[in-house]
Design brief:
By secondary structure, this protein is mainly alpha-helical. It is built from 18 helices and no strands. The longest helix has 30 residues. It is a multi-pass membrane protein.
Length: 467
């Protein structure tokens, strides 16, 4: 094999020299894997409760004054720009210093602090910016933590188990979010008087929920922090930490090197950015479509969200084995194809009532998680050894760079529907489904040209880290 190909050789089990050679390669429920996956379970407090169902709804309520929704969008867009600019640099720094666990710890603690800080956001206009800045800061810290978390995947898995390990993490993330959401809904949000006599007066039910989220994130992050140990690089590597400008020069050189050595990695980063934005759009606009097109009440939307996440979580864990058996590309292609078909059927049968959305909407949810998880394992198998954090930083950057696509396609498709049918925007809302489908289709077409490495379909057994 020539030096060019060696430079991009896959790195599952790259840390095998420090691992237990007696560990059974087919076993995934080792303690390091479990500890790693529990971070996904804990992070659901920020994803499912704070940014999806509870705090963002609270901060955009009438109590915070007019225009809170648009202000929220601009603030989170600014956070996205910062993530896109700095995520690959933070990953590169962690790779060079061998301090992934350290930076995972630091950024997770920042998420915990931001979550707890939301307790002080009272329902009044003068607290709007406090809430938005804490939310944006939490988003930035969460994304930076995720870069280092994702980069650990190769340390705890082998080429034949990486799909199941990744699927376990994604699945526990979904299920953990639902467990916490149900606890919050029935213990604090739904009853007039919740546990410990907490009520909705002065937003106390939501504010106490933020403290619970902070504690949840912290509790389930401790196992991976204590289990996956940093292995610092040599002193020469530590001494050669580049400055900010030099880091960007190295980043662009990384992209150029990846392009020259293996265009597949670059093509995959582009393709995955597109279809991952489409996957995010399914959840972002799923509740909007359920309520606006199929007549779901607010309570029905929450119940559907609970069921949808359970379905997605179970499916993600189950599809992990299929990932290892068939390879991640086949899983992604299958998932995107099925989602495109289900979404098209939702468009044509939009007048069929709630039953249609329950059936076809849950079919969509079956394939969201597997596509997300397989995307992570696909990249993990392409990354050059020792550069996992840097490339996963690029993974975060490319995803953020096109995060406008699904919202723009959704809104544009509705305008097309208005022009074609003569209906009002509310009546033509179901056309937005076609916009999400288009993004998924473009991502699928881009993915088809990406060629997996040979080991995607063969079991290259290397022992994982066992703690």
């Amino acid at each position: 094999m020539d030096e060019t190909n060696k430079a991009v050789s896959p790195a599952p089990g790259a840390s095998s020299t420090d691992s237990d050679p007696k560990a059974p390669p087919s076993r995934i429920l080792t303690w390091p894997v479990t500890a790693w996956a529990l971070w996904d379970w804990g992070s659901a407090a920020f994803n499912a409760v704070i940014t999806t169902f509870v705090f963002t709804v609270y901060i955009t309520s009438d109590a915070f004054g007019p225009g809170a929704e648009s202000t929220l969008g601009w603030v989170l867009a600014g956070a996205g720009v910062l993530i896109a600019l700095f995520a690959p640099i933070t990953g590169q720094s962690a790779d060079r210093a061998g301090r992934r666990t350290l930076w995972l710890t630091v950024n997770t603690l920042l998420v915990v602090i931001a979550s707890a800080g939301l307790f002080f956001v009272q329902p009044a206009p003068e607290y709007l910016w406090l809430g938005l800045l804490l939310l944006a800061g939490g988003n930035i810290a969460f994304e930076f933590a995720s870069v280092n978390y994702n980069a650990m995947l190769n340390e705890i898995s082998t080429a034949s188990t990486v799909g199941r390990v990744s699927g376990l993490g994604w699945g526990l993330g979904y299920i953990g979010g639902i467990v916490l959401l149900l606890m919050v809904y029935f213990g604090l949000i739904n009853p007039e008087v919740g546990v410990f006599g907490i009520t909705g007066e002065n937003g106390m039910d939501v504010r106490v929920t933020m403290l619970l989220c902070a504690a949840w994130t912290l509790l389930f992050s401790i196992p991976v922090i204590l289990t996956i140990r940093d292995k610092p690089r040599a002193a020469t590597a530590r001494a050669s930490r580049p400055g900010l400008l030099e880091s960007y020069r190295l980043l662009f050189r990384t992209i150029a090197d990846l392009w020259r050595a293996d265009k597949n990695t670059v093509f995959f980063l582009i393709a995955s950015a597109v279809f991952r934005d489409g996957l995010a759009g399914v959840f972002t606009f799923g509740g909007v479509i359920a309520a606006g097109v199929f007549g779901f009440s607010a309570g029905q939307v929450i119940i559907f969200g609970v069921v949808a996440n359970v379905v997605a979580g179970v499916a993600t864990i189950a599809f992990g084995a299929l990932d290892d058996l068939l390879g991640p590309k086949r899983v992604i292609v299958l998932s995107l194809t099925c989602m495109i078909i289900a979404g098209t059927l939702i468009f044509f049968f939009h007048s069929g009532g709630t039953t249609v959305f329950w059936i076809l909407g849950l079919i969509l949810c079956i394939f969201v998680g597997p596509a997300q998880s397989a995307s992570r394992t696909f990249l993990a198998r392409l990354i050059p050894a020792g550069r996992e954090g840097e490339v996963f930083g690029l993974y975060a950057t490319t995803g953020r760079a096109v995060s406008f696509m699904a919202p723009a396609a959704f809104s544009t498709a509705i305008l097309v529907g208005v022009a074609v049918t003569g209906q009002t925007r509310d009546q033509a809302q179901y056309w937005g489904i076609l916009g999400i489908i288009l993004v998924l289709l473009v991502g699928l077409l881009l993915l088809i040209r990406v060629r997996p490495h040979e080991h995607h379909d063969t079991a290259l057994e290397q022992p994982p880290v066992t703690g």
